[in-house]
Design goal:
- With 316 residues, this protein is an alpha+beta fold.
- Helix content is 51%, strand content 16%.
- It has 11 helices and 9 strands.
- The strands form 2 sheets. The chain has a 5-stranded mixed β-sheet, with helices on one face. Strands 2-3-1-4 form a 4-stranded antiparallel β-sheet, with helices on one face.
- Strand 2 and strand 3 form a beta hairpin.
- Helix 3 packs across helix 6.
- It starts with a helix and ends with a helix.
Length: 316
């Protein structure tokens, strides 16, 4: 019995048990140094992944052409040329090996994000912020619903360790193209932490606003209609960052909301206000915006009352 048990243990080690399986699992998870797209869904991650691949490949083909389409024709053209020089032939062989390795690198690859109902699609040889903005822009214009399960699609242009010192160091360089003088913009910060207890929202936002203010004092916070939105998504010990445009116009990059007409959206919000006893999740940015609108409305009402009183006095 002991010999049989020993043989089983050896077989497990040989065919993927123990540390090998752990290393394989880690290689398919979101890690520091990656670029990609965070996609949120509602309880159906498999269907969300399938929808994401179909949608991303559809628009990536329009922007960048079919995957690995141009490399094959280039290599065939090079094969027709005769190389007499040994050094040139060696360079040609190295370039062909590089091309073949690039062909095996998939444009999109689904990885474990580390949070429920969140999928991370790693991208290769493309700009995720440009691709996602193109998708949202087309959906906003056409009003065609192309997904049932996908909720939000957020680009990830950079990642770092989700600790304050690492974030300050990384973001101090990452944000320069948008906010360092002479560049300046109005902005807001959209922060979300999942499975992370060491990142407090207020502390992260204050530190990030301080970095942007040091780059150029002309950068101003605007919660109503900002030019840029800094998206910070923390999952476990990884901080995902991106800077996007039209965040408010594209309904916080929500694929379900961006295809709705403005009239239908207003009707829905009015209906929700009439319903009592229901709980709705409201993001902090929405709370700040609604508070500002209420204050403006109160100022308008007081002005109208004062004008009416003046008119009544003039009539008397």
């Amino acid at each position: 019995m002991s010999e049989a048990q020993d043989s089983k243990k050896r077989n497990k080690k040989r065919y993927g048990g123990g540390q090998r399986s752990k290393r394989y699992k880690g290689s398919r998870e979101l890690e520091v140094g990656m670029q990609g797209i965070l996609i949120t869904c509602n309880m159906n991650e498999r269907k969300c992944t399938a929808e994401a691949f179909n949608l991303l490949n559809e628009y990536a083909d329009k922007l960048y052409g079919p995957e690995n389409g141009g490399e094959e024709s280039g290599s065939e053209a090079e094969e027709g040329e005769e190389e007499d020089d040994a050094e040139a032939a060696l360079k040609k062989e190295v370039s062909q090996l590089r091309c073949s390795s690039q062909k095996h690198q998939l444009r999109f690859r689904a990885l474990d994000s580390g949070a429920n109902n969140v999928i991370f699609i790693r991208t290769t040889n493309l700009e995720p912020d440009k691709l996602v903005h193109h998708i949202l822009s087309d959906l906003h214009t056409s009003k065609k619903k192309k997904s049932r399960v996908i909720l939000r699609m957020l680009p990830v242009s950079g990642t770092c360790r989700a600790y304050q010192e690492d974030m300050d160091q990384y973001l101090g360089t990452f944000l320069e193209p948008w906010f360092k003088a002479p560049s300046c913009s109005s902005y807001q910060i959209a922060f979300k932490a999942r499975n992370s207890s060491h990142n407090k929202r207020d502390d992260v936002i204050k530190a990030l606003a301080g970095l942007v203010g040091k780059m150029n004092p002309k950068n101003k916070v605007d919660l109503t209609n900002p030019e840029l939105t800094i998206i910070v998504e923390v999952i476990k010990s990884v901080c995902c960052v991106s800077v996007v445009r039209h965040y408010t116009l594209f309904r916080k990059y929500n694929l379900q909301e961006v295809v709705k007409d403005d009239t239908s959206k207003q009707e829905e919000t009015g209906a929700n206000q009439e319903v009592t006893g229901t709980k709705q999740e409201v993001e902090p940015e929405e709370v700040a915006t609604n508070q500002e609108e209420k204050e403006k409305q109160e100022v308008r009402e007081t002005r109208d009352c004062e004008e009416k009183k003046k008119e009544e006095k003039e009539v008397l």
